[in-house]
Sequence to fold (372 residues):
Amino acid sequence: MNRAGAIALVLAMTASLAALVLLPWPIAPVLLLLALVAAPAILPATLAAGAITFPLDILLFAAVVPAGSVIHVGPIVFGSDGALLGAQAAFRLVTVTAVALAWLHAVPVPRLVAALRLPPRVAGTFGALLLAAHALREDWANLVLARRAGGTWPRGAARIAATASLVPALLASSLRRAAVRRDALRLAGHDVGPAFVPLVAFAALALAGRLLFLALPNIALTYLVVFLAGLLAGPRIGAAVGAVSMLVSDLLLTGLLVSPFVNIPAMALLGALGGLLRGLDWTSATPIERAANRGVAALVGLVATLLFSLASDLGSWLIVPEFRATPGTLAPLLAAGLAFNIVPAVVNAVLFAAAVPATMRSWRRWAPALLA
Fold:
């Protein structure tokens, strides 16, 4: 792949996603069909996204636009015209997910980055991040497969704690890979500085954590990893990991569209918050202090999810024409998003409570050697 071809691919990715925002609604079915034909493997994730998005948007618009045939449910009036508008908005959002996933399956991202011929230090960091994230997805799959083979991978809600138990191993793997790539870049004459290893290691795990659960809104390891980055490496690294992981994942998922990037400051603040809480004794041996630490971690996970919900819904309102063109949709959209994200917030709270103390204990044993 040459540089011209790489630039053309970036422009094509951006144009396909911009078309979903700027062109009339009928463009969505066309692009959705093309995405499913190009990458049939994305069908399960697309269906999962649709199962969540369609009911929410249809009910929201039907209540905001009580026109056409109406149904009274207590004090709320639902209109068929609004429901149709909501279905169109949901179709557009689901198609954005499908098209982004199709590009991820079709484009060899490391080759694309190499072909763009970015400055060596930028290309090295970005390439290391993407390669590490890809490897971590494989690590995750292998760890889960091993647990299933041993009959220890649970079903249902117990998987939340099981997922949390894998975080220390995934973080150790990510740190080792980042250290190897730092050494390779140094041998090639590019000194990347002391922040390279923690930045790449945490950002790669945060990126992989977001892509692993893409079809499940606001349920991801990203929140946990960004908080841990601040807690373990300091507020500056934590904020940088939050910003970089969201920037890269937004670029991968929605190209150069501006609106989705509203979630970057929210995630950066979460990383900085982790740094501010470094003074707590997260590995305390007393039962009362352990319970208090788990409570603090759970509260951070809960609040972070709800703040991210507000930022994401604001981004959706900005990029979807049906939302912007319908007066009075922003406040109900934000309120509905908060209500809808109660379950993801609770899930993330459990993840934080289970994983933060365990990761802190593991970190003290093996991190100094990897960061040397």
Observations:
- The mean pLDDT is 79.
- Strands lie at 70-73, 76-79.
- The longest strand covers residues 70-73.
